[in-house]
Structures are given as C-alpha cells and as structure tokens.
Amino acid sequence: VALFEGKPRKKESKITQREMDIAASIQSVVEEIVLKTARTLKDTTQSKNLCLAGGVALNCVANGKLKSSGLFDNIWIQPASGDAGGSLGAALSAYYNYFKKPRTYCSKDKMNGGYLGNAYDDHEIINACERYHLTFERIEPDNVHAVAARLVYEGNILGWYQGRSEFGPRALGARSIIADSRPVDMQKKLNLKIKYRESFRPFAPIVMKDKAKKYFSSEHCDNPYMLMVGQVNHENRLPEPDTSLTGLGLLDVPRSTITAVTHVDYSARIQSVDPDTQDSLYRLLSEFEALSGCPVLINTSFN
Prior knowledge:
Blueprint: H1 17-45, E1 49-52, H2 60-69, E2 74-77, H3 86-98, H4 122-131, H5 141-153, E3 158-161, E4 175-180, H6 186-195, E5 204-208, E6 228-231, E7 267-273, H7 279-292, E8 296-301
Parallel strand pairs: 1-2, 5-7
Antiparallel strand pairs: 3-4, 4-8, 5-8, 6-7
Helix pairs in contact: 1-2, 5-7
C-alpha cells in the first residue's frame, strides 16, 4: 500500500492518473531489465542472433525497443511463447537428441505463420451453421476476399475464419475480427459494442508486408506474429492539436490516417502479412487497398 500510495483500485471504478502512472512505471522497469539482460547476453556471447520465448517475450513494447536498440541483427520470438509452446521444444529435443536426426538450417519460417491448428472444410462449416440455425450464404472462394473487403470498406465489422487456426495467444488472421483502421470512432466501437471491454484497449494493425514501410518504422516491418511495437511514420501522422486533454481523454484525439490502430504515443503493434504464408489475409488486404487506397486493417481476436 505504501509503495503504490494507496489501496488497489476497486473493480469497475474510474481509472485515475495514479493507476496509469503505476502501469507506466512497471512497463518502464520491464523494458530496462529486458535491455540490460540483452546487453549482458551480447557481451557474453557476441552472437548476432537472439531468440526469445516465455511470457515476458509477449511484451510487444519491450520487444520493439529491443529491436530498435540494434543490439542484435536478428531477433526471433516464438509466437506460442507460453507453456503450450513447450510442446514444440519437447518435440524438437526428441527429434534431435533421442532420434539423433541431423540438424538442418532452413531460411523459411517453419512456424508456417503460426497456423498450426485445426482446419475445417466447407462440409463441416455448413453442418455447424445448420446445426445452430445460422443464416448463411456460400460465396465462391475466388470472390470471398472482394466481398469481404467491400463489406469492411462500407463500415462493417467482420468475423474472419480461414484455414488452420493459430497456435499461440495472438489472433493472426485465421480466427480474427477485421475492421477498417481509419475511422476515428472504430476503436471505441469495437471495444464497447463487440468486445465488451474497456474503451481504452488498443487494437493492432495488419498490413501488407511490401507496403508496411510506407506506414511504419522500417525496423519493425518484418513482424508476422504481432510481437513488436513500432512507430507510425511521420508522413501518416496528423498535426497534433492544441488540447488540454489528459489521461483517457487523449484517446479521443485522432493521431494518424490509421487512427484506430495508432496509440497516443504514435506507436502500433504491427502484424506484417506475407503472401507466401498468409495468402488469404494478404488477398483481403489487397482488395481493401484497391477500394480505399489503404493496405492497413484492424485485426483482433474473437475473445
């Protein structure tokens, strides 16, 4: 109580500057520890490469600052960083150490974009819709991306369900809610009417990998697992208005041309979409860009 200058905030009570300061202070300490640990590893090993896993490796802000530090040429973060991801390590350990299989280097990401879960065919999906008495219309695969992009462009919010599900805590575009990243009110609309959570909670952008540098800091544009926070480029930022707003009131100030995915400090938790591993999602973004001129959408989880 003494350390935090008061008792814990009661559930559903107003968030004050005190709570915001505590959260910011904890985040600052985490970032400091991560960077100090990384510097020690660099000095000890002289390695150009760093791999991360575990719960702290899901701290996107710390990861982004670690990337910006330039300590390592290559940083790879296991997208299934929690306990479940240990199953991959156990399988690899058995493969190499028990079965004595040779280690081979492969430049391609064997995580397959994180899409390692179950997939369901049209027959199974139609059966599920009929079982729960859902109204549905089947769209030909060649047209589904154009139809979906048009719906989003017209202001609709979509549930996007394609291919194999993601392995890990992030929705990466196989089981996702998709929306336009440009409307000023979209963040609040999604939080309050769809997700039923606090209005300040941020959303992440998905962007075509080959168009990402037009919108975001270049060192964070190869980010397929939504595990790093980068900065929105200056040319996409809006002039900062004169305002006396503080705290949560700052969320109501448009910050960029993709304001629904731009945080108050002009940062964004980027997911770059590569057509080689995320073809369906890439096609959706491409169709939306053809309509809007913008290759950036909101991507958030169903939960």
